[in-house]
Each structure stands twice: as C-alpha cells, then as structure tokens.
Amino acid sequence: MYVHIGDETLVRSGDIIAIISKECVVTSSEMEGFLNQEHTEIVDLSKGGYKSIVVTKDKIFYSPLASGTLKKRSNRLSAQGVLE
Description:
Blueprint: E1 2-6, E2 9-12, E3 16-21, H1 22-27, H2 29-37, E4 41-44, E5 52-56, E6 59-63, H3 67-79
Parallel strand pairs: 4-6
Antiparallel strand pairs: 1-2, 3-5, 5-6
C-alpha cells in the first residue's frame, strides 16, 4: 500500500524507514548532521514550510503534513492488515 505524504505524492509504505517531526530536527544536532551528510536525493514537497521529514530507501521528503498525521495514515493501513 501507499501513504500520501503531501503534494500529491505517494510513497510505498514498505519503503518508509522513518517519519521525523520538524521539532526533532530543529533541536537535534545529530539529526541535522544526518540530513546534511546524507547522499540521498532530497525532495521538498512543502513549498517553504515543512512539518515533518519522511526518510525512505531512496529519498528524503520534506512534507507539509505533521508527523502525527502521517503516523495515523500508516497506522490505518496497518490496522486493516495491509502493512507487512
């Protein structure tokens, strides 16, 4: 199944490694370092102000949706028995 992460973009749920809130990135030098050294393609879906970061196998997405919203969407899929 797929999770809508913003700006008409869908990501395979099995490809999602992490969903990180903006607050975690702003307050953590380790997270900032990870994002700066990562050699993965970065896609900004937020058009200016991101609320969360979605890390996948191939890309990092800056999402306009809150991490809680994305978690709820992925949990709904899991509750339906879709996620493996």
